[in-house]
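Two proteins follow. First one:
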Amino acid sequence: MIRSIVFLSLLGLSTGCAHHQNAPTAPTPLPETGWNAQYDQRYSPSGWPEPLYADVYTPTTAGPHPAVLVAHGGGWTRRSRGDMSDIAETLASVGFVVMNIDYRFAPAHRFPAQLHDLQVAMHWLHDRRQALSIDRERIGALGFSSGGHLVSLLGVVAGDDGALDQPWGGPETRLAAVVSGGTPSDLRKFGDGKLVEQLLGGTIDEVPDAYHQASPVVHVDSDDPPFFLFHGTWDMLVPIDQATDFHATLQAHGVHSELYRMRGRGHIASFLTSGSAIEAGARFLRRTLSPSNQ
């Protein structure tokens, strides 16, 4: 817990370099609690194309607790849940059950394999809600970069009964809140990007339907959960219009959305110095996942 609090406090020094649109007038208080961790928990079903694992963090206070599914970045092709360990510990230290997952990589596994991985992770959480003392109505998600894309997509397609909600979706995959940073929300704008081509299996001219289906902004409707988006204003890898357009689309559909602009930071820097955004995101999750909001 000490490591998590130091991480949050030190990186939170950059608060003055951010602008929080649609922020609440008064900050939501964050509790402080101890936590326990279970590492390398297999969450993928038997017979899944490859075994997938998660680290699960549980507060030491009495539940039931809200929970957060956490997904790492890496262009859908690399990295691991270890990148999100500090963030997962921070969330656990303020009262969330946290499931920090790995997922399958492109190009060996094309979209929507990664979304299916998040969907089965949600089923895993629901199946163990009593053992982990989870309130099943208060499950959110947090991700950065490609992980932000995946949690955002999960948030806007769950329960829609469309193609992406089958066969691994269903009501158990519905999120109550989403925190997403550096998010590629409209993959149609990356038609010549190598990482997106590896994920979707071709250029936008070759597989236009895949680009459409894989873009969270396309699936927004009025039933979607509240969103907290954070993004670096100097992000050249995922330009900030990916956040501003997504934010505007959510609002246009009557979905609560907050946009936290991290001034003067690019894609990597906005992750490495994300302490103030994670703190604001944690307050957003406490507020939106409180029992009074159900």
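Second one, unrelated to the first:
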Amino acid sequence: MERAKRRRVRIVDSLEAARGLFAPALTRARDERLYVAHLDAGRRLIGVRLRFAAEGEPIDLPVRGIIADAVALDSNEVILAHNHPSGDPTPSITDIETTRSLLRAARPIGLTVRDHLVFGGGDMVSFRERGLL
């Protein structure tokens, strides 16, 4: 009898779990990157999408692309994470405004934006902890 391959299920149900998912890729990155983790109803990771910024440009938050991926993956929640190569993890006005645009677009399809994390200089800022979501 052939054994079925077991896929490791990753649960992302806390800030620490989200930090553990994104920190290895974002704490040392020299270019700006945006990751979007897609989660199912049990907060199991079902997909991660990555976008790079153009050299010297800030990262673009692709609201339409995130919504399209969420529909394609049948996501219940997303967690965004990006880095500020400058070393300052403070969310910019643009970070806040585009995240709010995503919140408005996600609401009608029942998609929850669980958090948006910004990494920089070895630190991390959570939009949820700061009351920005």
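SUMMARY FIELD: The radius of gyration is 15 Å. Strands lie at 33-39, 45-52, 77-83, 112-120, 123-126.
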